[in-house]
From TrEMBL:
It comes from Undibacterium macrobrachii. InterPro entries: DUF3025. This is DUF3025 domain-containing protein. Pfam families: DUF3025 (PF11227).
């Protein structure tokens, strides 16, 4: 029988961040059983130190918020679809970041309740959870120059003139599960909310597993010590990341529908 996740092309570079976790799950017949076995194997817990379990959506009690249930019970409602499947794989790949995001979201719900508006802090946490990419940069002149180009929407400079920097002082790691879901059927306009992570030069010489552990610990600490807002992100058209798509020439990056100029701030006068 064809699995719902059989449409995923695991060779895509934007899935590298969760590929080790995915390979463990894909090797077994029952994906939900496999997720829970993997969670137990790595000792996956929530921010209250409760063991984490992936449960069917129908087991979420009526009137209880999704994030609150994860926080209070350690149970993640998980539907049989790509969105929730990727979410579970991110839990297995970046457990500390996910724990901290859930703690932030649950605390906001407890304080403000569930209304039509999430509020700025919960909005920012939800954006991270759903659509973030980790923009890992060497804390050097080259790293800061590249970030400046991206923040100023100088796309030709960032992706063509400084293209080699992505092989030596910069990496992009997909994090948001909605971002991954969209990239199953990629289109040029997909844009991530990039979260900057500064690292020392020796980061890039580490193994993938060492890098993943460092990012998980480092970003979770950032989230603990920083009042998250929607202003924290840098827009990143992900198919513009060098070697993430074919035909990345000057014409590709000249498409102003995707690689947009930075908006000019209106005068306050």
């Amino acid at each position: 029988m064809t699995k719902f996740y059989s449409v995923i092309d695991w060779s895509r570079p934007w899935l590298a961040s969760i590929l080790p976790a995915a390979e463990t799950i894909l090797a077994q017949e029952d994906w939900r059983v496999a997720l829970n076995q993997a969670a137990r194997a790595v000792g996956l817990i929530n921010h209250r130190d409760l063991p984490l379990q992936f449960i069917p959506q129908e087991e979420l009690p009526e009137g209880v918020a999704y994030e609150s249930h994860i926080s209070a019970a350690g149970k993640v409602p998980t539907r049989e679809n790509l969105h929730d499947f990727f979410n579970a794989l991110v839990w297995l790949s970046f457990p500390q970041i996910k724990r901290q995001l859930n703690a932030l979201q649950a605390a906001q719900i407890e304080t403000l309740g569930i209304g039509k508006s999430r509020g700025p802090a919960r909005d920012a946490a939800t954006i991270f959870d759903e659509n973030a990419a980790l923009l890992v940069l060497e804390n050097s002149e080259r790293g800061h120059r590249l970030l400046s180009c991206l923040r100023e929407h100088q796309w030709q400079q960032a992706f063509i003139e400084h293209r080699d920097d992505f092989a030596s002082v910069a990496q992009v790691w997909s994090f948001g599960h909605a971002l991954m879901e969209k990239l199953v059927q990629p289109y040029k306009g997909i844009t991530a909310h990039a979260w900057v992570v500064w690292v020392d030069p020796d980061f890039f010489a580490q193994s993938f597993a060492q890098q993943a552990r460092q990012l998980d610990a480092q970003v979770s600490k950032q989230l603990q010590s920083h009042a998250l807002t929607t202003a924290d992100y840098t827009p990143l058209p992900v198919l513009g990341v060098p070697d993430w798509w074919a035909g990345q020439d000057e014409t590709f990056y000249a498409d102003e529908e995707v690689f947009r100029a930075k908006r000019v701030q209106a005068s306050s006068q």
